[in-house]
Structure formats: structure tokens, C-alpha cells
Specification:
The chain has 5 helices and 2 strands; from the N terminus they run αααββαα. The protein has 159 residues and is mainly alpha-helical. The chain has one domain: Up-down Bundle (Four Helix Bundle (Hemerythrin (Met), subunit A)). A two-stranded antiparallel sheet has the order 1-2. A hairpin with a 5-residue loop joins β1 and β2. The longest helix has 25 residues.
């Protein structure tokens, strides 16, 4: 499973770049609309969540959490680069057995939970995919070019 998680991280990097390009394709006159601010906020949220989960796993120092930060595309891309590097270091240090290790954490609502490293890593990538779909709808409605971020499209690029 570790090679698969490494591939998912590479996919995440690729998809993040595609979303950034999609957001910058939105015509300047449409960037003042609330839908554009919403798309930017969702994009930043995906990176905040990836950071938070990595901190919960002990792979990075915790930082203040803002569920939907008011970041520009450039701020989110810069944060994503650091977050992706943190995930790379974390995944590189794992053994296959580590994926079943239990982790206790507190949700943003204050509830205590336990999950496995493998389930958490899978969630992080699925969470970002979910939100990329929302961003694609908003970008299209704003007159931009939606990103093609399907996993299968990524694997086709790698052949």
C-alpha cells in the first residue's frame, strides 16, 4: 500500500497545480464575484485540512487552524508545496506496518476519535478530491476552464 500512497501524493501535487491553473483561468471581471471567493476558500481549505491531518499524525508541527482561510491562489500554492513536502517526508518514513497503527486525535469540534494511519492518509486524498469537484463547478460557472483532476486522467499522463 505504501507505493499506492506515494502515487496518491504525486496525484495530489498534480491536481493542486491543475486547480491553481483553473482558478487563474477565470476572467478577471468574474474574480470579484462571491463564487470566486468561495472557490479560493475551498482551495485553501484543502491545504489547511491536509496540514491539520499531517499534524495529527505527528508529521508536522501544529499551527492555528482556520477552516476556510482567505488566501489567494499564490498563497495556497505556496502552502501546498510545504504541505506536500511534509507528507512526502512522512510517507517516506513509514513502513507497511505503520499503516495499521492506531492514532488518537481530536476533531475540530472537540470530539475524540481513533483511526489508523492508512485510513487517515486515504481520507486526506479523498477529501481533496471531493472539494476539487466543487471548485470545478464554480470555475465553470465563472467562465473559467475547469481542471481535469480525475485520478484516471493522472495515471494516463504517467504512461
Amino acid at each position: 500500500m505504501l507505493p499506492h500512497h506515494q502515487t496518491l501524493l504525486a496525484y495530489e501535487r498534480h491536481a493542486t497545480a491543475q486547480v491553481a491553473d483553473a482558478l487563474t483561468s477565470v476572467p478577471p471581471e468574474a474574480r470579484v464575484r462571491p463564487e470566486y471567493a468561495k472557490a479560493l476558500s475551498i482551495f485553501a481549505h484543502t491545504q489547511q485540512a491536509a496540514y491539520l491531518w499531517l499534524a495529527r499524525l505527528g508529521g508536522i508541527q501544529p499551527r492555528p487552524f482556520n477552516m476556510f482561510p482567505d488566501w489567494t491562489v499564490e498563497q495556497t500554492v505556496a502552502d501546498a508545496a510545504a504541505v506536500h513536502e511534509g507528507w512526502q517526508r512522512f510517507l517516506d518514513a513509514l513502513s507497511t506496518g505503520d499503516l495499521t497503527r492506531a492514532v488518537e486525535y481530536t476533531s475540530t469540534e472537540g470530539a475524540r476519535y481513533r483511526g489508523t494511519v492508512g485510513d487517515i492518509v486515504t481520507h486526506v486524498f479523498n477529501h481533496a478530491s471531493y472539494h476539487r469537484g466543487q471548485i470545478a463547478m464554480l470555475v465553470t460557472a465563472l467562465g473559467g476552464t475547469r481542471a481535469v483532476t480525475d485520478y484516471i486522467a493522472f495515471t494516463r499522463l504517467r504512461v
